[in-house]
Structure formats: structure tokens, C-alpha cells
């Protein structure tokens, strides 16, 4: 077995070259290259994790914005409804007022007209009396030839008219 | 083996051959051998592999993805087995895993067809032993550095009756001291056994085919079919052994970091 039979003559050489080559591997590859590869892997893992975290944050923000928008929309709807109700109430009140005013004016007009009618009928009655008294006086004068005063005729007419 | 002409030595592949006599350090001859050459090849291939993944793009290409998967795999191994404070051992565990994995896989390449005979230096316990001692030294240094003599409480599990403490301590200490041996020998044995098996079967194929077409059909063909399967298995073993070495090292470091 050469491993044993050559042990003495090759040991120093094997040891020297092994330490040299393994030293190169350790210092240049193990300590030089491997940490760089690891840092690349770590940087990539970190950037992926960061991207996922950013996406998650954006999703949460979008949810919050949607929630906010929903709340504002609900509030705006409520405000609009309130305004509509207020406007409706105002319009109703205004129309009632106008109606009342018109009513009052009409009533006033009616009253004035009634007053005028009453006045006219009184005047007409008075005229009828005077006309009737005249007629009565004339009739009396013509029929009997007696002279009646206007006041007597008027009194007689009044009695006859009033019953 | 059969005839002298067809003699195939399955152990020849583990022979360390000197390419260049090299130099001496402290009276020791440091030759440049085929083993050293394949260590350098491993470094270059591993470096080229890693370089393909150094673009550091946010959206990785296929090659970068592969390199990141390997790195992420070792990082997960370290996180799972060392836990808190484990990331500082990532360069060591990563180097260990990738170095052993690439050495195992490069040693399996059928480059002998082109005349370049791969040498699996992880099939030498001088190499695996040194790697194991390195891991074990880290465990000892970290353990005593962090916990001082309290590190010895590692050898007394919780709830041990006071009467049993000396015995348990000795057993635990011995099992602890065996760790570098089991760590180094496991890799060495797995790689050696697999390569011997492949070479023995390859010898069957060649010798039986040389003997006669009949023997080639009876012995060579089934052996070759078996070799295909075992080659696939060896690729798996190459990965598993590198994983086991890295896994056990990180488990031992966990003990040193956290004591149980």
C-alpha cells in the first residue's frame, strides 16, 4: 500500500503542498469569495423581503384609503340627504306662508266686497223707501187730493215695507 | 493477476510519483509530485468554479445559481450544526467541503484515457490526517479559548451520577481523542476502497478480454456493467464523504462553542 510504504519519503512533500494549496483555498476562496457570495444571497433575500413588506404596506394603505373613502361617501350622502330634507322643509314653509298671505288678501277682498254689497243694499233700500214715499205721496195726492208731507209718506212706507 | 504481461496493480494508482525534485526545508525533501499537481489542479478548478459565481447579480445566471447553492448549502450546514456564532467558521467549513469535494470528483475523472492519470490525494491518510488534525486543533483551540478548563465538562454529560464521573470522563475523553482519527480515516478508507474496487474490476475487464472473447463476454461484460454502477456510486460517495467531513467538523466545533 503506497500510503504506508511511501509514508516516510512523501510525508514532508504532502504536508507542504497540502498546507500551501489548502491555505490558498482558505484565504482566497473561503475568506475571499464565499462571504461575497453569501452577501449577494443575503442582499437578494433582503430585497425580496423588503419588496414583500412594501407590497403588504401598500395593500394596507389601499385598504385604509378605501375605508376612508367609504366613510366620507357615507357622510356626504347623509349630508346631502339632510340638505334635501332642509330644502324641502323650507320650501314647504315658504309655500304655506304665501298661501296664508293669499288667503288673508282674499278674505280681506271678500270682506270689502261684502261691506260694499251691504252698503249698496242699504242705499238701495233707502232709495226704494224714498221712491216709494214719493210714489205714495203722489198716489195719495192724485187719489184723494190730500196733501201728505214727505215725512208722513216716508213713515207710512216704512211701516208698510217692514210689515 | 493472470499473465505477467496483463498484470494490473490496483494499488499503483496511489503511488506518489515525483515530477520535480523540488527543494529542501529543514532537511526534508519537498518534491513536486503528482499528488501536489492534483492539489494545484483542485485549487485552480475550484477557483474557476467560484469565479463563475462572482458576478453578484441580483437575478443570478445558472452558474452563479450553482455557486450560490453550494455556498448556501454549506451556510445552512453551519447554521444548523454550530448554531449561534457559527458563521465565523463558514470560510473554513466551506473551504474544507469544497476542497475535499473537488479533490474527490477530480480523482474520479476518466482522464487516464487521454494519458493524464488522475491522482486522488484524499486517498492518502497523510492528507486526510492533516485536514482532520486541522479541524481537531480548531476544536481544541476554540474550546480552551472560550471555556478554559471548563471545557473538560464536555466529558461529563448532564445527570451523570457522581460515582460514575471518573469512568464516564475517561470514556468520553477517549472517544473525543479518537475524533481526528475517525475523521481522517473515514475519508481515506472510503476513497481508497472505491478506487481499488474500480481498478480491480477494470483489471477483470482487460484481462478477461485479453484471454478470449468468450471470457470477455462471461467475465468482462458483467464487470464493466458493474463498473458503470460503481462509478455512479463513487460520485455519490465523493459528495457524501466531503459532506460528512464538513458535517462532523461543524458538530465538533459546536461542542467547542457551546459545550453540549
UniProtKB/TrEMBL annotation, chain A:
Its main location: membrane. Keywords: ATP synthesis, Cell membrane, CF(0), Coiled coil, Hydrogen ion transport, Ion transport, Membrane, Transmembrane, Transmembrane helix, Transport. It is found in: Cell membrane; Endomembrane system. The keyword Hydrolase does not apply. It is a single-pass membrane protein. The keyword Transmembrane applies. It comes from the Bacteria. The chain crosses the membrane at residues 15-34. Residues 70-97 form a coiled coil. It holds the Pfam family ATP-synt_B. F-type ATPases have 2 components, F(1) - the catalytic core - and F(0) - the membrane proton channel. F(1) has five subunits: alpha(3), beta(3), gamma(1), delta(1), epsilon(1). F(0) has three main subunits: a(1), b(2) and c(10-14). The alpha and beta chains form an alternating ring which encloses part of the gamma chain. F(1) is attached to F(0) by a central stalk formed by the gamma and epsilon chains, while a peripheral stalk is formed by the delta and b chains. F(1)F(0) ATP synthase produces ATP from ADP in the presence of a proton or sodium gradient. F-type ATPases consist of two structural domains, F(1) containing the extramembraneous catalytic core and F(0) containing the membrane proton channel, linked together by a central stalk and a peripheral stalk. During catalysis, ATP synthesis in the catalytic domain of F(1) is coupled via a rotary mechanism of the central stalk subunits to proton translocation. Belongs to the ATPase B chain family. This is ATP synthase subunit b.
From TrEMBL, chain B:
Keywords: ATP synthesis, Cell membrane, CF(0), Hydrogen ion transport, Ion transport, Membrane, Transmembrane, Transmembrane helix, Transport. It is found in: Cell membrane; Membrane. It is a multi-pass membrane protein. The chain crosses the membrane at residues 36-54, 89-113, 125-145, 151-178, 185-206, 226-253. It holds the Pfam family ATP-synt_A. Key component of the proton channel; it plays a direct role in the translocation of protons across the membrane. Belongs to the ATPase A chain family. This is ATP synthase subunit a. The gene is atpB.
